[in-house]
Amino acid sequence: MSICHLDIESFSEAPLKKCGLYKYAEHPSTEVLVVCYAFDDGPVHIWVPVEDLPRKVVREIEKKKDPEGEFHTGAECPPELLYHAESGGQFRAHNSQFERVMLNGHPGQDIGFPTTTIEQWVCTAAMAAAMSLPRHLEGAAKALDTHKKDQVGKQAMMQLCKPRTGKIKRWTPENSPDRFITMYLYCMDDVRAERGIDEDMPDLLPYEQKVFEMDQRINERGVKVDMDAIEDVQELIEEYKSFLFNKCKEWTGLSPNQTGQLSNWVRENGYPQIENLQAATIKEALEDPECPKTVRRVLQLRQIYTMKAVTKYTAIQNAVTEDGRLHGMFLYHGAGTGRWSSMIVQLQNLFRPVIPDPEFAIDQFVERNLDWIRTLYKEDPMKVFASCVRGVLVSDIQADLIGMDYAAIEARVLAWLAGQEDILEVFEGHGKVYEYTAARIFHLPDDEVSLKAMKDTHPDERFVGKVAVLALGYQGGKAAFAKMAKNYGVDIEENRANRIKDDWRKANSKIVRFWYKIEELAIAAVANPGRVYATKDKKIKFVVEDRWLLMRLPSGRRLAYFKPRLDDEGKLTYEGIDTYTRRWQRCKTYGGKLTENAVQAISRDLLVHAMFNLEEAGYGIIGTVHDEVVLEVAEDFGSEKEVADIMCDLPKWAKGLPVKAEGFRAKRYRK
Does residue 316 sit in the same domain as residue 433? Predict the structure, then answer.
């Protein structure tokens, strides 16, 4: 059966970036402006679902369209498109979720487009992400050097997709024919660009296509929101911000929003070295013992007043759909290793709670009494509010949420991958890897009794063990160790950090050897394209195919590095998105980084295996955050133990990997 490459442009009064796709698609003002499509490598056709287009528009489109392409008008789906959709034909689009949700919703139904299934859609953006290319169409086309996007047309599209604030509230084909001509041609060009990258990239592996389809089902289900609780906390936030606003006025004569003037006030009142009032700058100033008390309290006020963590409540409010749920929050292959990332609320980076009982706090918000919150908690009220964001995501009526997380999964996978047997034995036994690591570094007793007592007998050493496990496993040096320790609020002197790093590496020699071996194999593969290089146990393999260095994982999935080459020093480089700049550029990599990629990718593959098994067992997945899966089930269905058992039932390729799953069952989502 033919493949239909398809792209649409739309108009709505709803702001897509703020409200998310699903709310955008259900907004009554949202409409499809044009549909462009092509079957296989045939001409691009254009369908404008308007009965009477101005003669100028029709004349120009007829002149500039593909010579063999058809130009349809009117609110009736073209016959060949109708047949393709109704007969289960495959559609391909860049960010296909947008086209599918829009065309299955009222915008598509209003123009007579048939309802399609998730299984009918292939997403070229997902394909690009899986091959470590830029996810957006323009970036992928540029990287592959295929058909480029029309930048002039993009400007016209942006002007026509939303209302105006000027005298003319909305452009139409009648009052702005040239803009619409440009936009229609732009949509046609997008089909060419999408088809170009589709032809130049491999499809997702069949198993990965199923993962993508599962992702789409998860986004369709959505997560229920406690809107009453959000309204309660928003009122408290506004009351507290008003208090802070007035206090800042009292202390400085300025509003906390007057950034430039407030910066000058800080400089004039004893702290001239401050450059700006950005969050990182304020944090650094507050850690400086030279910062005067009067300035310190103003900076602390500004820090709390501008706290971004509580803006998640507004993000949720903006995106909740008519069914009271958040949809479209999760992005397949959002990270280079294949893990999901999140949109709208960004669940991957929520504020870590500073109170032990967020659910109790939410119950107290109903009083809308700021003084009561201050009475209950010694923490700043804004931090209390930020601690409760997870808790406004709830189960539906007569249902529960189950959250289940792999415990210390990266440390477990790293030891398994590198063959670090003593660490594997720890995980197979008492599991106290932080204590065991500390015992090895500081030459302390490592019997089970001593390790259990370490929290009380050697708390500082245990802390060092924890940071070592988290910071040093991927070839991190003394700087990485010191930085992570500081993130936990502890300053480690440089020489001591270096000694700890050296001691950890001596105690974990197989992990260290693995770093260098995996780098050696990758370099050999780049130097000898087409030849396969593998670790002794065959868990990791490298080969260069076409323009990619491929790392084959134990699951059979592959991580891709685009246009690999060796630099003048023989180091491995590739084209990719830089971790820090977020720009597409040539990046360097090394053994520790390749190890981190492999470990995180394997951890993701374990989670995906569990997710398929959970779905088969009747557990409805509504989200995944890092190594956690979030389920919504009927109150009388299943159990935490069964979910944990399913997650620990490993695929054959993970033989010998000791895993453990921990979680909760509750009405509200929690950490």
Answer: no
